[in-house]
Every structure is written in structure tokens, then in C-alpha cells.
Amino acid sequence: MTLDGEIGQSPQGTIVKVGGANYRPGSLSTFADLFCGIGGFHIAAAALGLQCVYACDIDADARAAYQANFGVDPDGDISLVDPAHLPEFDILCAGFPCQPFSIIGDRRGMSDPRGTLFFEIIRIAKAKRPAAMVLENVRQLVTIRGGQVFQRIIRDIRALGYTVDYKVLNALNFGLPQKRERVLIVATLKRFADFPWPARKKPMKPLAKVLENKPDSRYLVSPRIRRARCAAHKSLHKPGIWHENKGGNISSHPFSCALRAGASYNYLLVDGKRRLTPREMLRLQGFPDRFKIIGNDSQVRKQTGNAVPVPLAQAAIKGVLKIHE
Ligand SMILES: C[S@@+](CC[C@H](N)C(=O)[O-])C[C@H]1O[C@@H](n2cnc3c(N)ncnc32)[C@H](O)[C@@H]1O
Predict the structure, then answer these.
(1) How far apart are the C-alpha atoms of 283 and 265, rounded to whole Å?
(2) Model confidence over 228-240: pLDDT tens digits?
(3) Pocket test for ligand 1, best of 52, 58, 81, 314 (most atoms within 8 A of CB)
(4) Which residue, of 69, 164, 182, 318, is most buried by count of CB atoms within 10 Å of its CB?
């Protein structure tokens, strides 16, 4: 066990800081944050008193934001990580990349190296045997290729001796004004019959509380785009977020549709006239305002589009802690 305050050397030479006041006494106290991004899991776990002992992400901008906010220097490419050099941890958290799952079932036939990244989690879990895992991905993971991919994932985790459960959760039911459905997979070495998912929905925070009062004028769209949007759509919601789908259809809601890392620039517009600011995107994902914004607008758009909504991560981690009480 890595002790509070200890400093360890990661396999890629960076220092893993393990200090902090939040050390949680109890059976589970530490976590590793694989594919950490800007730290949705970190915020959720730290708020429950857990200590981060290791993080990694291949994206240098995300690593810089993580370091600036949490004082942990994440490693880079997970495929270069030698688990023998990692500290011990109780919970493995991972929001693994979701692009190429259509080919995950046939591992040898894979042409996209990103498709193998789930197996990096298995590789590390096999070596470290954390007491629990909390994984997150897009809702579609459950159903693509007739569910075969998902079954394979669950089977591989069970084969390591874990009891597994999963649930599709929507951020809208967890207090955030964002429709974002994600599958949360939980796995524990301790057996359980029923995983304690939250029984009740939390009312959505009003969109007005997420929007900034005086956003910079650089977020306004051009008069031409604004005119085209207003000609195509009349909204019943003020404030509202206008969403343009791939077919060009526009709808509006008193909440945001899912933030996406690679979406077009103007697919979400506040009241049909301006883009969301970085702070608003972070709030829509449940990041507190103390989170420091590192990077430019397009980096933050990508980072927030990739992040796990904090209350979803927290619901899953809370359940894991309950099982271990
Ligand atoms: C879905 S995002 C996870 C975001 C994170 N949970 C958060 O709350 O910000 C997946 C992350 O995996 C990272 N990634 C992709 N390939 C990787 C690799 N080979 N090694 C480490 N990280 C990788 C991406 O840069 C991205 O930040």
C-alpha cells in the first residue's frame, strides 16, 4: 500500500504525488484514474474521501489540466505502463475510449489500436487486483453488434473473479441540465447480490443557474447563422439550448443535449445565438467552479465532451463503498 504523503516513481519517469488531506479511513481509500481526461472520476472520488495514487492519459492538454487541478502528474500512453511499477490502489476508475467497439469482439482482427484499450484495463486489473472497478462508456456500448461486445467486456471482467453489474444512467436524473446517457460498469472482488444504485432521481438544476451572466462576445454566432436558426426554429424555452442534429433539424430544450468532443462548432447554441462557454460546459458536467480552466476554448470543448458527468461517477463509486462498508 502506498502511504499518504509518499512520493512514487511512475513507469514513465514522472512523479506520482500521493499527498493530500483527504485520506479516507476505511476499507477502500485509494483509486487509480486510467484514461483520466480532466478528472471527472477524480472529482467524484475525492469528494468521497478517496485518494488518487495514479493517473494516465495520452492527451498532453488533458494531463496539463489534471496536473493543474489535482497536483497529480498523469502518465501518458497506457499501453506503455508496466503494472509492476504502479502503486497499489483499491478502486480502478476508467472512462475508456469508445470509438472502435464494432471490432472489439475479434481482437486479432483489429485494425484500430484504440480498440484494444479495454484490454489494457484488464491487463492492469489482472496484475494489481484492485478491490473494485468503476468503468464508464457511451450507452451504445451495451447494444452494438447485438450486445456481443458488451458481453465480452463483462465476461472478461468476471473471468478475473469480480462480481459485475452495470446500469445506463442519464445525467438529467442526477441534477445536471444535460441529457447524457452513459453506461456505468461496477465490479468488486467482494460478492454482492444487488448493487445499490441510487433509487431516486435528483431534480435538474435550472439551466439559468448554469449559464454565465455576461459571456464574452466571442461566443456569439454570426448574424447569418443566427438568422438561419431563428428562421428554422421557434423555441418554447427561455433560456433554452438549441440542438442541431446531423440532418440539420433543430430542437430546443430547457437542458443541453450531450456535449460531444468532436462535434461541429455550433451544434449547441444558447437561445439560438451563442456557443457555450468553457465554464458552462464544465458546469454541465458537474465540475465545480473551483476547477481551473487550462487550455483554449476548443481544448476545453474536447475535454468536457469526453468527461464523465461527476454525479454519475459518484453514484457508482458510492455504491462500491457501500458494498465494502
Ligand atoms: C472518454 S475519455 C475519459 C475522460 C475522463 N473520464 C474525464 O472525466 O475527463 C477517454 C480518454 O482516454 C484517453 N486515451 C486515449 N488513448 C489513450 C491511451 N493509449 N493511453 C492513455 N489514455 C488514452 C483520451 O485522451 C481521453 O482523454
Answers:
(1) 19
(2) 999 999 999 999 9
(3) 58
(4) 182
